[in-house]
């Protein structure tokens, strides 16, 4: 892949000739902080929440990441407690509102508002980010929700039509057999979607002995799966696999890889990313893992300052071989809240269970419930039609050292049973997580 499209996009966003050499990392950061000061000025002036939260703070003196540390964080609870207080524009200027149900809590949902310009900047990022993967006249199978106007599926389809391509949006992401038929019928040259669906699609293709050669690239979004799953996807589709990171709070697009495995170039004209130690709340150096914190730089309807995303990742310390000054996010390893504390005190993350279970060739997807009152972990397995791997999966889980210890010393019980066996999976468009019953008391 070439660095040109994202380089052109960056130049255009900075008001420069698209074909000249992009700015240096230092120049980009200076430009970002000028945009941030402008955002802070507007937020304090127009947005009730920040008018109060940033009162008495010298927002005009924020010139560097170290200066940014003097500003307070914004949390998901702040958004839940009064999303309208974040509005910087009148309701008439809101082109799209997205409501996010809160997982595992009974609190009010988060609501985010975007102006027409906010959505256009996302379409532009998708367009330039996708252009190396899709040629004019080609089709992409995009496993994305919400094809309503302003929804992610529709924004994405709009960006692909600007490239002269066509988008196929499946209605239900859980019917892997239907996805397979759509893929074969559409002759799609690119697949985009959550990693678990594409993993299941690859397992099913392999099981049926179908070889296809029309897919040139796969772009995974939302979820990170183990290296083994990524390798399966690359092998079965015979193509490069790229990663994308984003969330509703980043107006959907967030970062995209320029080369397979290179790390995701961040959407730096639109937000500044810090990585913090969630316990000390201090910034950590590049190359160190921590919570991803974003400050928006161009958002009109609802700016976010130092918003704690809850996602865990790191900024890659070296420069990308493509030479772009856009910093890169390494693999996003999950969320701060997707782990449980096992009896005995060890933390168990969904990522560890993915590593153990998805490596088995018959597994399409799985869910896991942790019953705190019975001290039991129960797995429900979505498998290839005709396969019965429950005993092997139970054994693989029980052989994992920290689970083995919790079973031996604290009477943790493990069960695994078959769930979907007809080519469907549990996962839809939401993030996968360990479900804790009856309360999330064991969660971090
Ligand atoms: Zn690059």
UniProtKB/TrEMBL annotation:
One Pfam short name: AMP-binding
SUPFAM superfamilies linked: Acetyl-CoA synthetase-like
Coiled coil: none
Annotated InterPro entries: AMP-dep_synth/lig_dom (IPR000873), ANL_N_sf (IPR042099), CapK_Type1_Caps_Biosynth (IPR053158)
Domain of life from the UniProt record: Bacteria
Chain ranges of the AMP-dependent synthetase/ligase domain: 100-295
Protein name according to UniProt: Coenzyme F390 synthetase
Organism: Maridesulfovibrio salexigens (strain ATCC 14822 / DSM 2638 / NCIMB 8403 / VKM B-1763)
Lineage per the UniProt record: Bacteria, Pseudomonadati, Thermodesulfobacteriota, Desulfovibrionia, Desulfovibrionales
